[in-house]
Amino acid sequence: MVFVFPRSLADRRARLLAVFALPTLAMMLIVSFLSRAHPNWSAPTYVSATILVAAFLLERGRSVVLAASLAIHIAAALFLIGGRQAAAAMGVELPAKLDLLHRVRGWDRLGHTVGDMLLQRPGVTLMTWSREDLSALIYYVHPHPFDAVIWNPGGGARNQFEMDTDMSRYVGRDFLFVSQSEIEPWDAARFTAVSPPVHIVIPIGGGLARRYFVYDLAGFKGYR
User: What is the mean pLDDT of residues 6-14?
Assistant: First the structure.
């Protein structure tokens, strides 16, 4: 819009909105070409860009286009929020590929289950090997386990959790280990005792489920 209609930024207010939108968008475009960029990283762009685009359309008498866009986005939001429940009320289960929120379902139930297990094990530290699992558990487990750590025997720092976790400080400690797969023998050997796993299965619809193995790990010996 800015490059095709440069005069759209003639208004001082439009330039102010563009200042908040375009630098972030440009930065995310550069990142997407150089590495991996997630869609939510450019979300701040839409705060001011939405106002800027709406003003651009109204100024050019395109109120019908703006109204159509609003209707489409409201319908899409309603489908995302209530589509699954509406389909279930009619006796239809949506396939997972049509449930755009399936990736965010089930975390609250997992957090509640793991939270109850932690309450029964005072002094035990929560640990997982997955950045996604760890961030979700820290949010959904109550009280929030801000001291949770990530399992990273291979070293390196691919995310913030791996940067912050120093397992050398946890030698001799006990953990509640939440994993999407069974613990490997060479990992189990780094503890003095490993309990049989507790299986957690959380259906999330469309034939999908979150499946976890939860272990009590006693007496961490260190990575080496």
Answer: 71
How does pLDDT run across 152-201, given as a tens digit for each residue? 998 888 889 999 999 999 999 999 999 999 999 999 999 999 999 999 99
Q: What is the pTM of this model?
A: 0.71
Statement: residue 4 has pLDDT above 50:
no
Amino acid at 19: V
Which residue type, as a one-letter code, is found at position 183? I
Residue 214 in tokens: 């939860």
- Output the 3-class SS for the chain: CCCCCHHHHCCHHHHHHHHHHHHHHHHHHHHHHHCCCCHHHHHHHHHHHHHHHHHHHHHCCCHHHHHHHHHHHHHHHHHHHHHHHHHHHCCCCCCHHHCCCHHHCCHHHHHHHHHHHHHCCCCCEEEECCHHHHHHHHHHCCCCCCCCEECCCCCCCCCHHHHHCCHHHHCCCCEEEEECCCCCHHHHCCEEEECCCEEEEEEEECCEEEEEEEEEEEEECCCC
The pLDDT > 70 percentage for the chain reads 91
Closest CA to 218 of 183, 176, 160, 156: 176
